[in-house]
Amino acid sequence: MNILLEEAFHVAATLSEVEQVALAQRIFAELASEAAWDQRFANNPEVLNQMAKEALQEREAGETTPLDFQNHRRAL
Q1: What's the gap between Cα 49 and its chain centre?
Q2: How far apart are CA 17 and CA 74, in angstroms?
Q3: How far is 58 from 3, CA to CA, in rounded Å?
């Protein structure tokens, strides 16, 4: 386990039982989501290429919104 993950678990250990359960559920959900994406791409490598083409077409058509990385914060 790397240092950053150790620090995160150290902080998580100070949370209430309810908060720890909620955090654990989110971690498991994220890991399951990543595994599902990996499986999709492993089964059909062309899927990622098609998704990239669609994203570029949407951008060219003006159907996307630029992200504001200065003010964008993903909730944990």
Answers
A1: 19
A2: 23
A3: 40
| Amino acid occupying residue 62 | G
- CB within 8 A of 20, min separation 6: which ones? 12, 13
Q: What is the pLDDT of residues 1-56, one digit of tens each?
A: 899 999 999 999 999 999 999 999 999 999 999 999 888 888 887 888 899 999 99
pTM of the model: 0.62
Cα 42 to Cα 31, 47, 63, distances in angstroms: 16, 9, 29
Residue 55 · residue 48 · CB < 8 Å? no
- In angstroms, the CA 62 to CA 56 distance is 10
Helix, strand, coil share (%) of the chain residues, nearest 5: 70, 0, 30
What's the rounded Cα separation, in Å, for the pair 13 and 71? 29
